[in-house]
Structure formats: C-alpha cells, structure tokens
Design brief:
Blueprint: H1 2-22, H2 27-55
Helix pairs in contact: 1-2
GO biological process, one term: regulation of sporulation
InterPro entries: Spo0E-like, Spo0E-like_sf
Pfam family, one: SpoOE-like
Length: about 55
Amino acid sequence: MRDKELEIRIEDARQRLDRAITEKRGMQTIMALSQILDRLIEEHICINQNNAELVG
C-alpha cells in the first residue's frame, strides 16, 4: 500500500515539475520541485530494496 501511495506522489510531483517548466516558473520553484521529486524517487528505491531483501 505504501508503495502505491508513493508512486502516486511521484507522478504528482512529475506533473507539477513539468507544469512549472512549461509555465516558465522561477528557477527556485523548479529546483525545489525537482528536489522533492528526487527525494520521493530515492524513498521509492529504498522501499523496493528493502522489499527485495525481505524476499531474497
């Protein structure tokens, strides 16, 4: 369940970042959204690695 919620949050963050780039928002906004997306992806990777360790 947590994994699915994270996937939804990642997709939302991607859309927000794409929209900010398309609308030519400020560099600080784009960088902040990019950092949020990076953190969410890192969290997703960690969860997947932990799940793999539990299974393997």
